[in-house]
Design goal:
About 30% of the residues lie in helices and about 25% in strands.
């Protein structure tokens, strides 16, 4: 059991780059989605272990786009972005198989990226304005269901935040 306690933190180290830079929930109301007309979806390249677990970029993208459309959000083609207004959901899924323990370690980062203007000099940058993530360990037989369930939770969180600023019409 002691070896597992040491192994699990070591296995999680590669996933520490997953940031928790969720928009500041200070005293003012942050509305990063107000007035958006459409959203693109971009999936980061999947690692080999994610592919071995059965995930594909196309399947993940189609699933996210479907949920956006079902919730009244127009989806833009990421190949047709207007360079001045690229606003998109970005999914990064990292999966690592720990052979010794026969488990997967996974990290899911779903963030919204859009142009922002710096007040101090009016420069426009592309930045994350919303970000949520999951990190976990799962058995190979349940990795797909667990990751898909976590992704659904993240999408629900995103959709709730989006609809606070853009109510259904």
């Amino acid at each position: 059991m002691g070896a597992i306690r040491v192994l699990i933190p070591l296995a999680v180290l590669p996933f520490l780059f997953i940031q928790s830079a969720t928009a500041c929930k200070a005293e003012w109301k942050v509305t990063p989605f107000k007035g958006l007309e459409s959203i693109g979806v971009f999936i980061s390249s999947l690692d080999d272990d994610a592919k071995k677990a059965g995930f594909t970029e196309e399947e993940l993208k189609n699933s996210i786009e479907l949920k956006l459309r079902q919730n009244g959000i127009k989806v833009s083609d990421t190949n047709d972005f207007d360079d001045s207004e690229p606003s998109f959901l970005y999914l990064r899924l990292n999966v690592m198989y720990i052979e010794k323990d026969a488990h997967y370690v996974y990290g899911i980062d779903l963030c919204f990226v859009q142009p922002v203007r710096l007040l101090r000099n009016d420069n426009v940058l592309i930045a994350k304005t919303w970000d949520q993530n999951y990190l976990g360990i799962e058995l190979p037989s349940r990795i797909r269901n667990t990751v898909n369930s976590c992704l659904d939770d993240l999408l629900i969180e995103f959709l709730n935040t989006y609809h606070e600023s853009n109510p259904y019409k």
